[in-house]
Amino acid sequence: MRASILLSTLAMALVAQATSLTGLRTLVLLDTLDDVLIYTELWSDLEGRHFNLTLNDVSTPVSLTKYDRRLYDHLIFLAPNMKEYPKGMNAKEVIGFMAEGGNVILAGSSELANPLRELSREFDVEFDNRYTSVLDHFNYDKELGQAKHDTIVVDPSSHMSKIDAIVPQDKLPGPILFRGIGHSVNPKNSLLTPILWAPQEAYSWESVNLDESADQDPLIAGKDISLVSVMQARNNARIAFLGSTDMLSDAFFSASPKKQGDKETVSGNRKFIEELTKWTFQEKSALDVVAVQHHKVGEEEAPAHYRIKDNMTYTISLAEYHEGEWHPFSADDVQLELIMLDPYVRKTLEQLELNDQSTVGTFTTTLQLPDQYGVFKFMVNYKRPGLTYIESVTTVGIHPFRHDQYPRFISQAKPYYTSAASMGVGLLVFSFVYLWGGLDSTVKTTKKA
Amino acid sequence: MNDIKTAANSLLTAYIKDTPKSLKLIDSYMVYVLLTGIIQFVYVVIAGTFPNNAFLAGFISTVASFVLAANLRIQTNPKNASQFPTTSPERAFADFLACNVVVHFAVANFLG
């Protein structure tokens, strides 16, 4: 009995330690089911994080949604040769799957076929022509890339994005191995973030007939070649593009990358893929607004409405999800905007100090409302690459002064009050003297005339 | 210069001698009103127009008082009697008072 309780507690602890905010149902599409054996380490990593993997080859019919509900939470494309989507699936379905909040990992290779190219194009990611590879005659791996110089060693300290929310640099034990196709991302698309790019000397060229000399410039070269990019859609669904299925393979996970003339190192691929999948599958860097409070200075409750020029305090609590739990979020760039069509006030919120009991990060500021009445929005619009987009809107009314809330007499206008009064008194005095001041003679004179 | 002095002197003498007392009273009242108006105008130039309604009310009260007093003076001047055959001085003064009441109502309302 005790053992079973212990076991169930342990199981619950394990479940609690998990994992993805979206869910655990994962569909993996492979070119053939034989490829399952290439990625055994990946499967065990994902299952260790409690994902339920469904491994399908591309000839098996599959549907992503049923009755407008997602049947899977995550989708992994490890099928670069896929000429046609499996029956029951198409690009529109995949985009609809993301619109419903599903996350996608799309891995390509030199043989990347049309359907996945077109799908990537929907996200402003353009893979280079078919049968091209990223080649580098300086940074190739001594062992895996000896023949074609197509397995390149990428140094994360200089060729990886510095955004720790996605792949933190200090967690990688060594350089990253890459063999596959390069892509370019539209720099104008602010939702897209390149994570890994090629060394300066690399270029993207056909890897089939290497003996033929090049007769034109490569389409993309050097740092313009993105190797891994990610996108977070406006609904916070995440997608990662990798130019290389080999990056995820057991062979690359356990390789010892060695550049010409360098020492042997440990491959960072396993950790890189772990962090990348954690990010993509919403296991980390997910933010949530826990509470929004606002009140006048010296009060506790939110008023029904404010009055112009009131002093008020705004507080927002944010939590960040990682390691299967919500933690306090820390940042120094959360801003509050007070908007009526235009922002009237924009102020950076200050974070309260965290202590042991903190479960949320609390950001607060005290400000004076503008001298403008109307319906305003208190808005925290916090959008940073790698983090869930936060858009918290609180609508409040700001009233003008009532007629009896103004000062009754304005000291500046006292001369005018005096003048008006003196005109009245003057009239009385004048009338009194005119009528009873002994001026009758005049009137009589007038009458005679 | 001397001529101007002589002319001013004779004007003053004639005014003191020939003008009826009631008109002199109206004149002094008008001078008082005029000075009040000028003081306010100087003040608004220095202090700015901020309570604009109060300034307008105060200034308009002086202007209106001045105009009404001028009307009263014209209508009660014996020399103008031929122009106002139907208007007795009593009637003119009654008009003057009635108009002043209206003016001061408006001013009090507009003062703020």
TrEMBL record, chain A:
Recorded topology in the membrane: Single-pass type I membrane protein
Pathway where this protein functions: Protein modification; protein glycosylation
InterPro entries: DDOST_48_kDa_subunit, OST48_MD, OST48_N
Keyword Isomerase carried by entry: no
Keyword terms, alphabetized: Endoplasmic reticulum, Membrane, Signal, Transmembrane, Transmembrane helix
Principal location: endoplasmic reticulum
GO terms under biological process: protein N-linked glycosylation via asparagine
Signal peptide span: 1-18
Transmembrane segments: 416-439
Residue ranges of domain OST48 middle in the record: 294-436
Keyword Cytoplasm: no
Subunit structure: Component of the oligosaccharyltransferase (OST) complex.
Family statement: Belongs to the DDOST 48 kDa subunit family.
Protein name: Dolichyl-diphosphooligosaccharide--protein glycosyltransferase subunit WBP1
Organism of origin: Linnemannia hyalina
Automatic annotation (TrEMBL), chain B:
Location(s), subcellular: Endoplasmic reticulum membrane
Alphabetized Pfam families for the sequence: DAD (PF02109)
Membrane topology recorded in Swiss-Prot or TrEMBL: Multi-pass membrane protein
Key words of the record: Endoplasmic reticulum, Membrane, Transmembrane, Transmembrane helix
Transmembrane segments: 29-48, 54-72
InterPro entries given in the database record: DAD/Ost2 (IPR003038)
Pathway recorded for this protein: Protein modification; protein glycosylation
A single Gene Ontology CC term: oligosaccharyltransferase complex
Swiss-Prot/TrEMBL GO biological process terms: protein N-linked glycosylation
Quaternary data: Component of the oligosaccharyltransferase (OST) complex.
Purpose: Subunit of the oligosaccharyl transferase (OST) complex that catalyzes the initial transfer of a defined glycan (Glc(3)Man(9)GlcNAc(2) in eukaryotes) from the lipid carrier dolichol-pyrophosphate to an asparagine residue within an Asn-X-Ser/Thr consensus motif in nascent polypeptide chains, the first step in protein N-glycosylation. N-glycosylation occurs cotranslationally and the complex associates with the Sec61 complex at the channel-forming translocon complex that mediates protein translocation across the endoplasmic reticulum (ER). All subunits are required for a maximal enzyme activity.
Family affiliation: Belongs to the DAD/OST2 family.
Name listed for the protein in its UniProt record: Dolichyl-diphosphooligosaccharide--protein glycosyltransferase subunit OST2
The gene coding this protein: DAD1
